[in-house]
Amino acid sequence: MTQFMTSGNQTMVTEFLFSLFLHLHEGSLLLFIPLLLIYGFIITGNLMIFIVIQLDISLHTPMYFFISVLSFLEIWYTTTTIPKILSNLVSDQKTISLAGCLMQMYFFHSLGITEGCVLTAMAIDRYIAICHPLRYSMIMTFKLCNQLTAGSCLCGFFLVLPEIVWIATLPFCGSNEIQQIFCDFTPVLSLACTDTSLVVIVDTIHVVEILASFLVIALSYIRVIMVILGMPSAEGRHKAFSTCAAHVAVFLLFFGSVAVMYLRFSATYSVFWDTMIAVTFVILAPFLNPIIYTLRNKDMKYAIGRLFRCQKRAVGVRR
Fold it and tell me: Which of 93, 138, 164, 170 pairs with 246 at a CA distance of 20 to 30 A?
């Protein structure tokens, strides 16, 4: 049941309704099972990558350190949205409280921005490793890696905070139906019964941050590719390309979906295409990342194999 609170002459909204789930009816269970399997794969895959990198000494390098951080963030990033989507698919009450909606928006965007910053750090790492290999060990120390990770977290969790605090002060007194599968800025702000033009300034800051990260990453990989193409050894070129291929794939997947989702400017899409873009951004991209980092990476595959062999030997000894 939708809840409202009377304030003066206005009825204030205290919770929002995800109206898209109302039209699914019997199809909800058909979507619930594959989504639950996808969510389980995302959590298991990223957790396995994180644990393997922590346990395998051969993977204790800056590159794999950033991959482990990205996998850790991805676990929490998907957990901010997918469990609530699963709940809405099977529950009769397809609502979320105002406080819950604000929390979902905050953590979803904070973790997303943090991931973007970590991807930027990964691009810089690959640039130094390939373009300045003799100075790599002196520049990319684990102290610097920790500082870049801490800076990414600070950037992510503080950059979006002013917008969340501002939205928390807005009155919501009209419709409470969110035309999206999760709480996001645009569908929530469209329900506010006051002027929200201030969001243009905040959105501009986010656009600058996204474009800055994109340019740093793009320029780094362009330079890396140019250096790789100039390598005299075919074996060296192949090894360098295989190392960077996974990073470039994740970069294109992440920033491609971000661009379609948030850099649309005045362009508007139908509810159907808005939902499809959100599914790609929230579900498909996180689903593909563990696959890219394991199938495209020989070191990761060997490390996972070693871990399972050690587990089998340990079980055999106990028996």
Answer: 138
pLDDT of 1 over the 50 cut: no
Confidence of residue 154 (pLDDT cuts 50, 70, 90): very high
pLDDT, tens digit (0-9, with 9 covering 90-100), for 81-140 = 999 999 999 888 889 999 999 999 999 999 999 999 999 999 999 999 988 989 999 999
What number of other Cβ atoms are within 10 A of residue 313's Cβ?
10
In terms of pTM, does the model score above 0.85? yes
Q: Spell 10-28 as b/e; 16+ CB within 10 A means b.
A: eebbebbbbebbeeeeeeb
**Sign of the dihedral through C-alpha 310, 313, 318, 319:** positive
> Is the distance from CB of 30 to CB of 192 less than 8 angstroms?
no
Check residue 75 and give its pLDDT.
Answer: 96
Looking at residue 307, its pLDDT comes to 76
